[in-house]
Design goal:
The complex is a heterotrimer of chains A (about 375), B (about 325) and C (about 290). With about 375 residues, chain A is of the alpha/beta class. Chain A contains 14 helices and 15 strands. In chain A, the strands form 3 sheets. In chain A, strands 1, 2, 3, 4, 6, 7, 8, 9, 12 and 13 form a 10-stranded mixed β-sheet that branches. Chain A is elongated, with a radius of gyration of 23 Å. The model of chain B is unreliable at about 1-10 and about 325-333 (pLDDT under 50). The chains are: A alpha/beta (about 375), B mainly alpha (about 325), C mainly alpha (about 290). Chains in contact: A-B, A-C, B-C.
Chain lengths: ~375, ~325, ~290
């Protein structure tokens, strides 16, 4: 019967499509398996796959690390940027091998994680700048804004770009009368936690209102998922303002504001200003610290450190020894070659004192009481 | 042919007569029956398990907030452990209502046109075209909605909001993703199903009724008003209910274009949230929080129950439509 | 009756003629309104999506890299094909089996009616609830790992099952009873009647229904969110996470980078082409079969 021919033809078409895709010679560095040639190292490649999930803030640099890590060691790192809240949740539930967050875990979150059988360890990796980016025709350079003004914008109290509060700090600039549209996060976000932490320091209205948290009740504005979503929101809407990590702002060529820091200087977000925020910081023993509102004169006040979350004893928490070793390799890569790569994407590497402490934490990771050995 | 030779020569393959079926062959029949009954029973077991499991997992949320409290409390703030689903329920209802208001008349008109008014050559291609709307995946609707429709409609929406701001539910700043766009996309998505069922129902209108109306001098439209629409009323209601069920459950297209704000927006041009969208968005963040997860599953259960009710209502209407209709008004005196 | 006849036998008044024309115009206008979105979507798909199509688009995986090459959608295409294939292998035999039961053994009887009712119930369940169910039962309980492609297939199979059962039941009912009775009269056992007579006759219709169910499953996103999750690389390993076209589109939709949005359009065009091909083949088979509903 003729339908049989049609059926055969359609099956062949589907198989052909699949075969063509499978059998093709691809040049992407993330092809399956560890057969791609490597430019470094003659040791046998570790291979394997580890899964991670979490903050969108450092996603650009983690994805870049993942691509180069794979070339280097053959291990595939699947990093899903779903927000810090999601990263902490998935990590505590054990559905990923490592988590990522820009906001250190709260005590109750740590308690939940400990139920898994081991303590969570915060490993700081890089620092980034939370920029106040905007898309306004007629303002081509960075506006000077202080903390209270930014808070009032995000509270909806300042509704137009030519508001006196903005104009008083930018006397040389002609400001249009465009309405302000606020873009904020709709998911649980470490970037939000850091941004609102900054706002709370400068605005009592913010402190008593939305407050500081990964997810707050925004008085006004449009919500979007992830740093990329907020960037999309700012890009699409004329007159919009949003808070995104610097890599996203640079890529979309947003104009970013110069924010007044604790010393009274208006500082533009830049690699140096971000690094300055971490100078002289002495983190506590568990490395859960924040660099928001740094007192350093050259510091950008909304600089944030971001963490990778791993288990102190991975095997007690349910991972197997191979996965634990691969995760440790990944962490060593991030604290090693990764620190050289980060500035290329305008993320600041860790200052030496913090890096040493972080490396010590990684070296102390265990599997069932024994140190995880294995070359990096 | 003599009857005798028929029975004596009647064989099945293998040369055996019907009187001599092998034991193995005899055994397969009841085996097959039990196997197929087992599969059918599997469906029942699956649904029962489905419902029970969902309920068990959702129970912690209901225990904490109460059934009424969960559904009718107006604050969904996971970071503060507050799970009142009212904004979600309201969002679901608003978007579905918009979808029905816009989609059902268009679908009925399409069905009417195809069955009564279209030239014969156009009927089949038009039917296929409307059905193609159902073949487009919902994520593609979402992509088109947020990338093309929402930005392009925003100036018109803002104009409408400014001009008719005195109307309730209208006015204020128009957000690019909002209830209205979500409702519009849903309307487009339910057109094929409402239209297909309406078409089936309209096709069953007895020709006598239509011809009688025409014979009495009714214009085409009057014939439709007198003979077709009253007869199909129950069936069309059923079709609309099925469309409603589809609109309530749609997740991905809605979450892309509604803005995902867990508040009851003040106008139809504000952002909102629906039961289905909240599940898709927050399950990742709920992985290690049992209360949050229970709340999301409870939202799923509420959604499930809503669609069950709506579909049961739809089935009732469609079944009523297939019963013999009473003579419409205005006919035989 | 005579009063009505007298009134209606007069020539049609201009007012009635006008309202007839207006009403017909409105109906036609609404019908066009129904078609416009389809045309618009297809137009935009081709306009934006075709530009994304290239050899590398189909042969490279998404890289997830921020700067540099974003990659293509190879893993998404392969993932959809693999997961939908597995889902069909699960759903079609079970669905046809249940339909067989309903038609061959369950024409009357409360059990069969209850099953029919519940199949109807299943068709109305939103796909996100199926995904949530599989998430609770298979992912959270860590049955053989957490997120896995085969669990996504299970969720898709649950979705396909009622569609397959319904359409198979309709087609099996169309097989003329005379065929069955003739075979039974010749002494064939019931199972032979089913496998040698009924199924082959109904096969085109069953294939049509299954292809339509497959087309629907290929476009579903929500069930896969909770079960197969998202991953960049291609793999044939169904016990691990796997990418899929709807998920790839969903991830690229809200992005700020224009080339990622364009990749979403290209993936959407690919998905729509696949779904339309399946639908077209299904309809062609239906047209050529001897049994048409």
């Amino acid at each position: 019967m003729r339908y049989k021919n049609l059926l055969a033809l359609s099956c062949c078409a589907v198989l052909a499509l699949g075969a063509a895709a499978c059998g093709s010679n691809d040049s992407s560095p993330s092809s399956g398996g560890s057969s791609s040639s490597s430019t470094s190292g003659s040791t046998a490649k570790a291979g394997g796959t580890i899964n991670g999930a979490g903050a969108t803030f450092p996603a650009p640099v983690y994805q870049e690390w993942a691509a180069r890590f794979k070339e280097d060691q053959g291990t595939t790192v699947n990093y899903q940027p779903i927000g810090s809240g999601g990263g902490i949740a998935q990590f505590s539930a054990g559905t990923v091998d490592f988590g990522a967050t820009d906001s250190a875990m709260k005590p109750d979150e740590i308690a939940t994680a400990q139920k898994k059988g081991s303590d969570p360890v915060h490993v700081p990796t890089v620092l980034g700048a939370v920029t106040v980016s905007y898309n306004v025709d007629g303002i081509e350079q960075g506006l000077k804004l202080d903390g209270e003004t930014v808070a009032d914008i995000f509270l909806g109290k300042i509704k137009k770009w030519n508001d006196p509060k903005i104009a008083s700090q930018n006397s040389g600039t002609q400001l249009p009368s465009t309405s302000i549209t606020v873009c904020h996060r709709s998911d649980e976000s470490g970037t939000t936690a850091n941004f609102t932490s900054f706002l709370t320091d400068y605005s009592s209205a913010w402190k008593s209102g939305p407050g500081t948290d990964k997810s707050v009740k925004w008085p006004t504005g449009t919500g979007a998922k992830g740093n990329d979503g907020v960037a999309g929101c700012v890009k699409q809407t004329k007159g919009a303002v949003g808070y995104v990590e610097q890599a996203y702002a640079l890529q979309n060529k947003f104009t970013t504001a110069a924010i007044k820091n604790k010393s009274g200087q208006y500082v533009e977000p830049s690699l140096q200003a971000t690094s300055a925020a971490a100078q002289g910081v002495t983190p506590p023993a568990d490395l859960r610290f924040s660099t928001i509102n740094s007192p350093n004169a050259q510091a950008y006040p909304i600089s944030a450190v971001t963490f990778l979350l791993v288990w102190a004893d991975a095997c007690k928490a349910g991972q197997n020894a191979t996965q634990a070793k691969l995760v440790k390799n990944w962490l060593n890569y991030g604290l090693g070659p990764g620190q050289q790569i980060a500035p290329q994407l305008q993320y600041a590497p860790l200052p030496d004192n913090i890096k040493t402490k972080a490396q010590a934490k990684v070296d102390a990771l265990q599997c069932n009481g024994a140190a995880i050995n294995g070359a990096s | 042919m003599e009857a005798g030779s028929l029975t004596s020569r009647a064989t099945v393959r293998g040369g055996r007569s019907i009187h001599e079926r092998s034991p193995r062959s005899r055994a397969i029949d009841p085996l097959l029956k039990w196997f197929l009954s087992g599969l059918a029973a599997l469906i029942l077991v699956l649904i029962a398990f489905f419902f029970i499991r969902l309920f068990i997992e959702a129970k912690p949320a209901f225990d904490k907030f109460g059934y009424i409290g969960f559904v009718f409390h107006n604050s969904w703030v996971p970071s503060q452990q507050l799970y009142g689903a009212l904004p979600l329920v309201v969002g679901t209802l608003i978007t579905s209502a918009i979808a029905l208001i816009i989609g059902v008349p268009v679908a009925i008109a399409t069905a009417l046109y195809i069955t009564e008014l279209a030239p014969t050559r156009v009927k089949a291609p038009l039917t296929v075209t409307v059905e193609l709307l159902a073949a487009v995946p919902s994520v593609v609707y979402g992509l088109w909605g947020i990338a093309v429709l929402a930005p392009k409609l925003q100036p018109a929406e803002q104009w409408f909001s400014d001009t008719f701001g005195f109307l309730p539910l209208v006015g204020g700043q128009v957000s690019i993703p909002n209830y209205f766009i979500a409702g519009l996309i849903l309307a487009i998505m339910i057109i094929p199903i409402v239209s297909a069922i309406s078409r089936e129902v309209m096709a069953t209108v007895p020709g006598d009724h239509k011809e009688a109306a025409l014979a009495l001098g009714a214009t085409r439209w009057e014939m439709i008003k007198i003979a077709v629409l009253p007869y199909s009323r129950a069936g069309i209601s059923g079709a609309a209910m099925l469309g409603l069920g589809r609109a309530i459950g749609e997740t991905i297209a809605v979450t892309i274009v509604i803005g995902n704000a867990a508040d009851i927006g003040s106008t139809i041009f504000s952002q909102g949230y629906t039961l289905a969208a909240v599940i898709a968005n927050e399950f990742g963040e709920a992985a290690s929080d049992p209360t949050h997860r229970a709340a999301l599953i409870a939202a799923g259960l509420v959604l499930f129950v809503l669609t069950l009710l709506v579909n049961a209502l739809a089935r009732y209407y469609v079944n009523r439509a297939s019963r013999p209709a009473t003579v419409p008004k205005g006919m035989a005196g | 009756m005579s009063a009505v006849a007298q009134r209606s036998l007069r020539p049609v008044s201009p007012r009635r003629r006008r309202s007839d024309a207006i009403a017909r115009g409105v109906v036609l206008a609404f019908t066009i309104v129904a078609i416009v979105p389809l045309v618009a979507i297809l137009y935009w798909l081709v306009k934006e999506g075709l530009g994304a199509w290239s050899k590398t688009f189909f042969t490279t995986d998404p890289t997830g890299r921020f700067l540099g090459d974003p990659g293509g959608i190879r893993s998404a295409i392969l993932g959809t094909i693999e997961m939908v294939a597995l889902a069909s292998i699960i759903a079609v035999p079970i669905g046809v089996g249940v339909a067989l039961y309903l038609v061959e053994y369950g024409k009357v009887g409360r059990f069969a009616n209850v099953v029919r009712y519940f199949v109807d119930v299943m068709t109305g369940v939103p796909s996100v609830v199926f995904g949530l169910f599989v998430y609770i039962v298979l992912v959270v309980t860590k049955v053989a790992g957490t997120f896995a492609a085969w669990k996504g297939s299970v969720a898709l199979a649950l979705l396909m099952l009622p569609v397959v059962i319904r359409s198979a039941e309709v087609v099996l009912n169309l097989v003329p009873n005379s065929l069955r009775e003739a075979a039974l009269a010749l002494g064939a056992p019931r199972w032979k009647v089913i496998f040698r007579i009924v199924l082959p006759t109904a096969l085109p219709g069953i294939v049509t229904g299954s292809l339509l169910a497959v087309a629907r499953a290929a476009g579903e996103t929500a069930p896969l969110l909770f079960t197969a999750a998202f991953v960049l690389g291609s793999s044939a390993d169904l016990s691990q996470r796997m990418n899929s076209l709807p998920l790839q589109i969903f991830n690229d939709v809200g992005q700020a980078q224009d080339r990622l949005v364009q990749r979403a359009w290209g993936a959407a065009l690919t998905l729509v082409v696949m779904v339309l091909l399946l639908t077209l083949i299904a309809r062609l088979i239906q047209r050529r079969s001897k049994l048409s509903p």
